[in-house]
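Lab channel / #folding
Pinned by the channel admin:
"Please post every new chain as: sequence first, then the structure tokens as a reply. Keep commentary short and put observations after the output so the thread stays searchable."

First post following the new format, from NK:
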Amino acid sequence: MFYFRKKTIALFFGCALLTTLSRALCAADSEVFKTLDFREVIKNAKDKVFPAVVFIKCLREGHEEGKKVTREVSGSGVIITPEGELLTNWHVIDKAVEVRCLLYDGRAYSAKVVGSDKDTDLALVKLTEPAQPNDKVEGAFPHAALGDSTKIKEGDFVMAMGAPWGLSRSVSMGIISCTRRYLPANSEYSLWLQSDASISPGNSGGPLVNTDGEVIGINSRGVIFGGDMGFAVPSETITFVVAQLREHGKMRWSWTGLQLQALRDFNKNMYFAEQEGVIVADTDPESPARRAGLQPLDRIVKICGRAVTAVTEEDLPAVRRLIDGLPMHQPAVFEIVRDGKVFAIEISPREKGKVEGEEFDCPRWDFTVKVINQFDNPDLYFHRKEGVFILGVKYPGNAQRAGLQQQDIIIAIDGKEVKSLADIKQIHSELTADIAAKHRAVFTILRNGLRRQIVLDYERDYEKE
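Reply from TO:
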């Protein structure tokens, strides 16, 4: 009897097992169909953009090693118009003297930089001449459409396309990890799309693509260690920037000198009771904002009649774009709240101008110099508002032997004041014209705020040794 019951129990269990297995097979079958559908979606999306992905090689001139050095660097891009305009990163084409692009079908093109913007790390490049006359693309270039990054959500599938590690092109897949990542060290004007699609060196400038086959971002940053984290400039920012790059070759940002703070600043552990506006954290010295009378802890609630609010730090880039997009040299009315009272203050922004100084190689002196820029070198700008500093020191070399160092601000050479790149070019030309007759010069420099004098003997020619 016990045996029968055992068999009966086993039989019922078997029926349950068979039913469960049947359901599992049906469910698995359904998942197979879903997987096949998903694969088709991914394939279609990839096919729309992949032919527009470009492998970019640049010859870049740099001065960081104390002399002018030309190196080959590579990156990625994506063609966005039938005429051959393509998007890439500013840091891919920065200081490039030659740009070459490899298309999807193996044809190679020379290209020119239409415009670039360091603040958003974007560049617009135009394909020009084919490497071989018979390689010329007839009709329109294969190109991809820009999508709307504001519609993307965490968990959405995306593909990162580009040329990692100098390989011609590849595609990786992942999901959107964050749609509003704030990276102030990389851009104050844009939030970033974060994804876990694999990003490697060389992917920079390649497209981040949604499942509709639209470019919703340009891959710019990646983290190799600690898991895959890639960051892309969203198409919302791209659309805003590209229009000005086409028209002006650069972004014409205004500058007020305002430093902003969100109403709820978790990092600084500061929280304001108000629900509207943005806080003035500080103003830069001699800036339009400081001259107009804005003070730390002022709360800006309106700009030219338009209400502004930054509750968290993720809201700051939109406010910054509004402020730095104001017309230059024209009064803009800022409505602020100070000590519970409302004030209207007029600020006339000026042009932000260059955000990085020019560079120059000083042969025989064995160092390179760069113009001081308030945005690129704020610490040096604090000590000297105009002039040049030593960017790189050649090793071995005359400057290194004399004790000159990187970040030294050059005040004067043999008593002649140095205020600009033109000054040092002229002095260098004069002093190196006849080295046999004179090969020593007294450099007055500013190092860490302290003035000192150093004698540079440049008789020895390290290039010929």
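NK: The mean pLDDT is 89.
TO: also worth noting, The two ends are 103 Å apart (CA to CA).
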